[in-house]
Amino acid sequence: MSKPQRFLPDEWYHCYNRGIDMRQVFMEHKDYLRFQMLLYTCNNRMSLPVRSVRNEDTAFEAVFEQLRDECLVDIGAYALMPTHYDLLLRERAPGGISLFMRKLGTAYIMYFNAKYRRSGTLFSGRFKSRHVGKTTPLKRVVNYIHGNPSQLFEESRRSDVHRNIVAYPFTSLHDYEDVRRAEGSILSSALLEEMVQNTSSVDDVIHDFRTLYAKSNRRLWVTS
Fold it and tell me: Which terminus of the chain, N or C, has less C-beta within 10 A?
């Protein structure tokens, strides 16, 4: 078994996980919304309630108005896909990423298992992580994360892929595009101002995802 990643202060990490046996972890629209809520509420030294794990009717916008104590991590970008999620994280305090990911995973599995009347694990083991080193442009990792939805539209024409990625609601691309929405609070406003310097056109997002991050070329962004 590999040793857990040691997270360094002020460094960015691409953290991700998939459903066990490649199963879906988001079955319907409300599941994605719940995970977005948890990205906000779990990023806190003290737990913020999203009411009962069975309650799907929690007012979505109201969750992001709750005041938080000390945040555990900075969230630089995210994307939620039917079978997996991708996050770009930076610790605010020692142990922050590990604690945040543990709280996030536990809370979502409790919700998912209660809703779908199942038990046991949902994700494929402990979350995985990659350090975004100084030789890897941060923009590439942001583009990879935001480009994930292109997998859902591979059979579409290029113009359709572009339009569908822009419309796909479960990534932070909208916040980079200055769209005002409640879940924009998942990223801090100060951080977003810093990160937006690493944004690019949607065509660049699609290009980087398909050329630099295709499974056959995945080592390019690890070593470049």
Answer: N
DSSP-derived secondary structure letter, 13: E
Structure tokens belonging to residue 76 = 């630089």
CA distances from 195 to 74, 145, 191 (A): 11, 13, 6
For 131-190, what is each residue's pLDDT tens digit? 988 777 788 888 889 888 888 876 666 668 778 888 899 999 888 887 789 999 999 866
pLDDT grade, residue 217 (50/70/90)? Answer: very low
Report the residue count for the chain. Answer: 224
pLDDT digits (tens, 9 = 90+) for 81-97: 999 999 999 999 899 99
DSSP 8-state code for residue 80: E
Greatest Cα pair distance, the chain, in angstroms, is 46
Architecture of domain 12-223: 2-Layer Sandwich (3.30)
DSSP state of 76: E
Domain layout of the chain by residue ranges:
12-223
Torsion angles phi and psi, residue 15, rounded to 5: -115, 140
Measured in whole angstroms, how far is the alpha carbon of residue 147 from the centre of its chain? Answer: 12
pLDDT at 1: 42
Give me the residue label for tokens 């056109």: 201
Q: Do 38 and 50 meet the contact criterion of CB atoms below 8 Å apart? A: yes
